[in-house]
Structure formats: structure tokens, C-alpha cells
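Posting for a labmate who doesn't have an account.
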Amino acid sequence: MKLLVGSIIAAVCVVLVVIVIVVVLLTRKSGATSTATTITYVLWSFDNVTTDLYG
């Protein structure tokens, strides 16, 4: 069971990293403020995901 949870967390991390890279590349044209906001939002979402996983 722990292995399954670990695999899910690893998959989520990989997806989040890809999303962050894509978003940063897309928002680089828009400016630094939107990039910072997006990164904050992604971190906040990730925090919610981990909270859900660990109760």
C-alpha cells in the first residue's frame, strides 16, 4: 500500500513539474508577476493534494 501511495505521489510530482515548466515558458512573455502567482498556486495545489493523501 505504501508503494502505491509513493507511486501516486511520484506521478503527481512529475506532472506538477511539467505543468510548472510549461506555465513558466508560457507566462515568461507576460511578465514575472504572473509566473510568481502561478508558481504560488501550483505549490498551494500540491499542498492540498498532499494533505488529502496524508489526511
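Reply:
Got it, the C-alpha cells are right above this. Residues 2-54 form one domain.
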